[in-house]
Amino acid sequence: MLQKNPDTVFIEFSINDSVARFKGSVEIAKDNLETMIARILESNPECEIILMTMTSGDKYSEGHRSYRKDITAHYDMYRDVAKQRGLLLIDHYPRWKALQSDDPKRFQEYVPDTIHPTAKGCAEIVTPAILSAFGIEADQPAATDAHAPSE
User: What are 104-142's pLDDT values in tens digits?
Assistant: First the structure.
């Protein structure tokens, strides 16, 4: 990926870093995140790095036979790293938690295993948040060169 010299790289928290049976920790996840950031910037110092949190994933998932431990501490670490490094953070977690609390049926439809959003969940929750972070309204098409007004 880095050989392509990207302008922007998104790093979404890997929920597997919080799986109890993998014996991960916030410290290990932070070391991994800092290593990824350092390697990206070493290869391309101008690259914009955007961090993201995701679903709650805080309940036992039968399909994955796993329990995610300390998910809020992991997400707090992402928030801290973003703040310390001046990186954009797209924090989906509060939206997912609110939906899980306010409308459990819809949450279950959007994230059946509490971890992986469906296409509909992404369209309704994830994509609008990403577009908003870039100042684009969800129902407003992004301008492209093909549709740009001619001068």
Answer: 999 999 998 878 899 999 999 999 999 999 999 866 554
Domain ranges, ordered by start, for the chain:
2-94
* CA of residue 99 relative to chain centroid, distance: 16
CA distance 29 to 23: 11
* Both structure tokens of 114: 């509490």
Q: What is the CATH number of domain 2-94?
A: 3.40.50.1110
Sign of the dihedral defined by the CA atoms of residues 36, 41, 43, 44, in that order: positive
Nearest to 14 by CA among 27, 28, 29, 1: 29
The pair of structure tokens assigned to 116 is 């992986």
Q: Which residues contact 38 (CB under 8 A, 6 or more apart)?
A: none
- Specify the pTM: 0.81
- The span from the first CA to the last CA of the chain, in angstroms, equals 35
